[in-house]
Amino acid sequence: MQTNESVKSQMIQQAVIEKLALLSMEKQQKVLAYADELAQPKTDGQNLWDMIQECTKDVPPEAWEELPTDGALNHDHYLYGAPKRYNPDGSLIER
Fold first, then answer.
1. pTM, whole model, 2 decimals?
2. What are phi and psi of 86, to 5 degrees?
3. Rounded (10°) CA dihedral 6, 8, 9, 13
4. pLDDT per residue as tens digits for the range 25-78
5. Which of 15, 48, 73, 77 is 20 to 30 A from 35 via CA?
6. Neighbours of 31 (CB within 10 A)
7. CB-based contact 78:66 (threshold 8 Å)
8. Helix, strand, coil: what percent of the chain each, to 5?
9. Which residues, 6 or more positions from 77, have their beta carbon under 8 angstroms from its beta carbon?
10. Please, are residues 23 and 31 in contact by the beta-carbon 8 Å criterion?
11. What is the C-alpha R_g of the chain?
């Protein structure tokens, strides 16, 4: 005997097939690509910190010493050459 869940699943599959038959070939291909994407197994969910460590693992310690200590505060200065807005202690530079 089929479970309620398997009956629902079969009904959904049949409804999808019926709707799919009404679509153009191009839209059917898009549906297939989307279904393929959904069917992919989920990754192990590597977190952001692990990704950062992977990207920076080969950076030598002396390169870290050359980074500005106020880079987050004055990122516009270091990226675009804008005037510094903050002191290294985080206080606003008076103009």
1. 0.41
2. -130, 150
3. 140
4. 999 999 999 999 889 877 767 788 988 999 999 999 999 999 998 999 999 999
5. 48
6. 14
7. no
8. 55, 0, 40
9. 83, 84, 85
10. yes
11. 27
